[in-house]
Hints:
Layout: H1 14-30, H2 40-58, H3 66-73, H4 85-88, H5 92-109, H6 129-132, H7 138-151, H8 158-164, H9 183-189, H10 194-211, H11 216-222, H12 226-231
Helix pairs in contact: 1-2, 2-3
Amino acid sequence: MLGPGLHARKGMSPIVAxxxxxxxxxxxCLYGIEIMNYTKTDILKxxxxxxxxxxxxxxxxxxxxxxxxxxxxxAQEIMNSKPTEEIWKRPVKKAINMHWEKQWLSEKENKxxxxxxxxxxxxxxxxxxxxxxxxxxxxxxxxxxIKARLITRTYTLQSDREKFTRxxxxxxxxxxxxxxxxxxxxxxxxxxxxxxxxKHLSVLKSYLKNNTPVGTFDRVEEQGLLVLFILNSSFxxx
Length: 238
């Protein structure tokens, strides 16, 4: 399935690709599991395979946090770390959702790469709005792929290159050559993008003015939340 290029960078919707994986691959992986003596190593191999698939269909690199990988798709781990028997006495879907919501929120607290990612309540089968709202066209899926890498902090900027090379490469923005290039600089302050950015921010401000309480955009700017609002507007509740 992976060979033909079924992933976001080729314009394939990750939601469609995940459905194919769950429909055709998972049943084969788990066939006969009730009577086979699976070891923890076997289960771990299955889980790592699914993590690899979920990253690839979203165009995300291997360093993406496991929780971020699953949250973006609204997917869940195959078998590892099941809820306890007592929790399973509740309705199964509710128990699974509670389990993964709690675990992913806990992982988010320890992962700086997940600072822009919002964990939905009952997150299973609820893909992130980036994948949920994108039209199933090649160009739009490719655009969403860039946003998915920005929100999971896996879009490589100069600040990342400086860290990965242990200082051998500069963290200065190669476009404006004035400041450290991190996510905030890339989206908000880089002078090389000012004309294009102002055009889109004008549209965003106009939309918020007509569809949200007065002063919403100004409050977001004042609170230093503009990057978060652009990448994950669902976080903001007026």
